[in-house]
Structure formats: C-alpha cells, structure tokens
Amino acid sequence: MSTTYVGALELASGAVLVSAIMTLWRRQVRSIVAMLSLQGIALSAVAIILAVHEHDRALLITGLLVFAVKGIVVPGLLRRVSQLDPNSRESAPLVNVPASLVFAAVLIVLSYVVSSRVTSFAPTEATHLTPIGIATVLVGYFMLVTRRRAVSKIVGLILVDNGIALVTFLLTSGVPLIVELGSSLDVLLVVVVLQFLVVSMGRHLRTDELAEMKALHD
Amino acid sequence: MLIILALLIPLLTTVLAASFRWRPWIGWTTAGSSAAVLGVGIALCVRTTTHVPLTALDGALRADSLSSFMVVVIGTVSLLATLFTPRTLRQEIESGVTTPRYARHYVVLMEVFITCMLLAVLTANLGVLWVSIEATTIATTFLVSHRRTDGAFEASWKYVILCSIGIALAFLGTVLVYFAELHVGGTHHSASLDWTSVMAIAHHLNPDVMRLAFALLVLGYGTKVGLVPMHSWLPDAHSQAPAPVSALMSGVLLTVAFYALLRFKAIADAALGPAFPRALFIVVGIASLLLASAMLIAQRDLKRMLAYSSIEHMGLLALGAAAGTPLAIAAVLLHILGHGITKSVLFLSSGEIYHVEGTTEIARISGLLARRPVLGGIFGFGLMALVGFPPFSLFVSELSMARAEVDVGLWWVVAISLACLGVIFGAFASHARQMLMGAAPSTSAGPVATARSVAVPLVTALVVCALIGVVAWPLQSLLHSAAHVVVP
C-alpha cells in the first residue's frame, strides 16, 4: 500500500468535509457557492485517486462526470440564482455561525460513532474514511434545517448529496455506472428545478425568505 | 417484448405531446396510451402468473408477477387521470388559469411521470429503481406548481426539497445494500444491485450493514410513500395540484414507492429475519394512522381531507406488510389497487366539485346530493368505498390484512388500527353529511345534470372496484403469485 495513495485520499476526502464546514461559516452567498465548487472538485479527486489505484475505468468516468456536474455545472446554476440579488447574505439563520461550527464538531463525532459498525466489517484505507462522508451528510442536513434562505437550502441539499457520493466512493468504489449516471442526472435536474422555482417564486412572491411562505397550513 | 412495449408507449406519447401545440386530441391520445399500457399490463400478468419472469434488454428490465401487477395499477389509475386531461385543461384555459403553452408542458410532464413509474416497477436493478423514483419527483414538481399561485409554488417547493432529502437517505440505504452485496462471505466479488442476484445471496448479507440500510430505506422511500414522520409535503402537494395529477400521485405514485419498500423488505427478511423489518413497519404504520385520524377530524378542506386519508391508507399498507405472510402481502396488493381506483375517483370528482362550486372548503359545499345528484352520488359512493364498506374491494383487503395481523400475533396492532378507522369513519361521515346532505344554498336552482364524460368513467371505476371486491377470480392467482415474490 503506497503512502502517497493513502495521503492523497485522506487529503481529498478531508477537503470535502472542510469545504462543507466552510459553507456554514461564510455568509455571502457568492463565497458559499465557491466552497461548493471546491467540494465538487475534491469529490471528483477522491473518485479519480481510487480509480487510478484500483485500475477501474468506470470509476474514472464517474470521477470526470462528478467534476463536470458537481464542480462546474451545479455551482454555475447556483451562481445564477445568487446574481438575482448580488448582495444576498444569509441574514438571520436560526442558529448563529459560532454555534453552528460547534454543532458541526458534534456531528463529526457522531458520524464516527454511527459508521464504526459498518466500516469494521470491511476495513481498508478507504472505508476508514467513511465517517468523513457521513459527517458531510449531517452538516448538509443541519444547513437545511437551520438556514432560511432558499439558496442556502439548496446548498444544504447538495452537501447531503455530495456526502452520500463520498460514502459511495469510499465504501464501494462507486455504484454501477448506469446507477451513477442516473443519479447524477437526477441531482442535476433537481438543482435545475429548484433554480426555476426560486426564480419564479422571486418574481411571484418577491422574496426567497422561506419564513414568509405561509399560504398552506391546516 | 411486452416489457419494452409498456415503456415505449408512454415514451412515444411524450414525444408526440412535446412536438405539437396543445390540442384536445393530444389529451385523448394520452388516454389511449394509458389504455394501451393497461392492456400490456394485463398481458404481462397473464404471462408471468404461470410462467417464469420475463426479461428484456439483456436482463436490465424484468417483469415478475409483482411488477406486472403494478403495471396494471399504473395503467388503471393513469387511464382514469388522463381521461380527465382534456376536460381539466379546457376548463383551465377558459378560466384563464393556464395558457396553451403551459397546457403542453402539463401533458408532456404527465407522460414523463407515467413513464418513470413504469420504469421503476419494470427495472431489474435496485439502483435504477431509485433513479426512476427520484425522477418522478422531478417530473411532478411543475405539475404541482401548474396553477402558479402562491400556494402552488409553496407546495411544490416543500415537495421537491423534502422528497429529495428523504429519497437521498434511500440512496444511502441502496449503497449500503450494494456494499453488503460486494462483501458477501468476506470476499470481494462482483455485485450489481440486480434484484435476482441480490435475492440469491440475501441470506449471507452482513446483518449490521443491512439493519442500517433497511432503516434508511424505510425512512427514505417512506418519504415518497407519505409515511409519518416524513409526510408533511403530502397534504400540500395533493391539495394544490390539478385534480388528475392529485389522482395519479395519490392513487399510484405513493404505492410505487411502497413497491420499492416491499422489494427491500424481502431482502431484509432474508438477511435479518422478520422481526426488525416488522418492528419498523409497525412504528411508521401506527404513527401514520394516528396522525391521519387526528388531522381528519377537524379538516376543513376537501382535497386535504383526501390527502390525509392517503396517509391513513399508506399506514394500513405498512401494517399489512409488517404481518408479512403471503395472505397479508396479497391483501396489501389488493389494497393498493382498490385504494388507487377509489382515491382517483374521489380526487377527480373533487376536481369537478371545485369546478362547479368554486371552492374546496368543506363548510362552503352543501346539499350536493340534491343539487347535483350524479356527482354527489359518485362522491358519496367513493367515500363509502374509501372507509371500507362492502362490496368495495377495500373492505375485503382491510379485513384480510387484519386477519393476517392476528394470525402472526399482532392483535394489538389490529386493535389500534380499528380504533383509528373508527375515528376516521366518524370524521368522514360528518364531513360527508355536510357536503352531500346539508341544506342547499337558497340561491340554487333545481338539480343540475353532470356531464356524461365525467360520470361514465367514474361510475365504471366504482363498479370495477366493487366487482374486484366480490369476484376474486381473475386476481386471486395473480395476487398469490405476486405475494410469493415478496415472501419466497
């Protein structure tokens, strides 16, 4: 087992989690989107490192696909949403930034506890890193719950998705290619749909503060 | 060949609808296409009940009796829904709610939606199953926001966000199943998420991994099924969408997601034994029943009332699946068909009620039976079918599920669900009394006839629902064979 391989894998996986936490820290929508782009690139690096190590051509294709979709296209779509209102900031999250960062630390510990039983069943260098993916998923859910702007919710959704993709790469070196293609397409379309919705809602309700949506209730 | 045909028909209809401007004949073509899908579904059932499963495209597509049964359910409900497409769109264009451009989007998305559901039940691959169920979310988002009101946008936003994060959990669960499949017996061998090969080694899947995987799958697909705790999108989406879309979503989309759970339940039963899947299904099932009965008592809106009733029936399905005997699964499948037909009749007639009354608020609808005898009658009989009156098939399926639950010692589950059904019956009875028999507004004239194009399909559907409750003949062997796919 070459140490360069392990080191590179740890670095790239770590970058995925660090960029997730950075999205909690930054408030300017533009820089959050930049973090997301960084995360997509780190994620594709994980896939490509694994592909080179295992001589797996399908995984290499997956890695390039992830680079294109999650590193470039999805952040590009979000950038267009944020341009609707160039100075947009997450004004009043339900949990403030320092508390969010503390909470993220708790989530990371939690993810090590959760994944220990799964990873101990097939211990390799890659599966040992699985908790990083789980932690990214949990940070994504945290963002979805505590941030009120529509754009931040989309970012949370993408974090969840990237975290799951990281778990997939580390645990199983990716799912069968057809499933990977299908799920990437789905993610892309969901972001497109959400972008359309935010734009039409902005035109219609003149706001994307979701706290103001209260037309439906029992 | 039949499998490919089942997918090709709606696919070609999609292309057709996309390439022409909206005209009523396109609407009728979609109805014809749904009828053809139903025909293919019946042919598939005939082939797969007695023979081995059919496959197509190198085994990528596969139809066993369970898939074939689901094709019939999809065909039936989509036939009902698409028969109302020309009428709904004409009314909406006349009243300025929509334009011909959006009418075209509507038809295209409807067909994409139906195609995705068919792919979900006909694929052999558990990963592709996930991909197609997620794709239904994408196709239906703009159908929910079709009316472009504040409420419609809010509903579709909640719908797509909640369903996407929920279904992401199901993907994680699928990945864990794949991980377990890769490491069967500690050796690294080829895995594919193919249903047949996963089932063949299901006994050897690692129980720790499978326990986590199945819990994630129940939560994830449970979101799409509308099971508590991930149900909150459902009443909003179902009440804001146009009536045919609500009919399709409630009648068949929920149960297509439930079909995914049934498949994974078979795998989990083999890997973990029945206790763990049963416990999970009981928890979500009872929670759904309790929530639905609480929300139905004080419900003020007609379409939300029907939506909560869907949560109730999905809870009943979960409890039936918890029992897990062949009888229980056969009853679950019969309930899927009966609920699909009944709920679409009710949603479609509620769309008609909205059209003539201009509201779906229960308190503002009254004396329907005196003023519009046919429409009111259809609605009344639909409600009777829904709460489980004989001769409708829901009576038979609810009774059989309860029997199966008692057989495996879950009598306390039956007791709780009967109490909930009692409360729900009371709630429905009081709402129905208000709407059907309450004093008619003094301004209204004598009885008004209901258009034949509305009455004929709905009455036929109710008659079919009653017939399958009375005559088990064509379904019995099919249900038996389909149940044995889940309980080998």
Number of strands of chain A: 0
SSE arrangement of chain A, N to C: HHHHHHH
Total helices of chain A: the number is 7
- Overall geometry of chain B comes to globular
Largest interface: A-B, 40 and 53 residues
* Helix-strand string of chain B: HHEEHHHHHHHHHHHHHHHHHH
Q: Assign the structural class of chain A, choosing from mainly alpha, mainly beta, alpha/beta, alpha+beta, or little secondary structure.
A: mainly alpha
Strand line-up in the sheet with most strands of chain B: 1-2
Global mean pLDDT of chain B? 92
Distance between the termini of chain B: 26 Å
- Outline of chain A, from the CA principal axes? globular
Major sheet of chain B:
2 strands, antiparallel
Indicate the multimeric state.
heterodimer
| Mean model confidence by pLDDT of chain A | 86
Cα Rg of chain B: 21 Å
**Tally of strands of chain B:** 2
What order do the helices and strands come in, and which of them pair?
The complex is a heterodimer of chains A (218) and B (488).
Chain A: H1 3-25, H2 29-54, H3 57-82, H4 97-119, H5 130-146, H6 150-172, H7 177-205
Helix pairs in contact in A: 1-2, 1-5, 1-6, 2-3, 2-6, 3-6, 3-7, 4-5, 5-6, 6-7
Chain B: H1 2-19, H2 24-50, E1 54-56, E2 61-63, H3 65-83, H4 85-94, H5 100-122, H6 126-144, H7 150-182, H8 195-200, H9 207-225, H10 233-240, H11 243-272, H12 275-297, H13 302-323, H14 326-357, H15 368-371, H16 373-386, H17 393-407, H18 411-437, H19 452-470, H20 473-486
Antiparallel strand pairs in B: 1-2
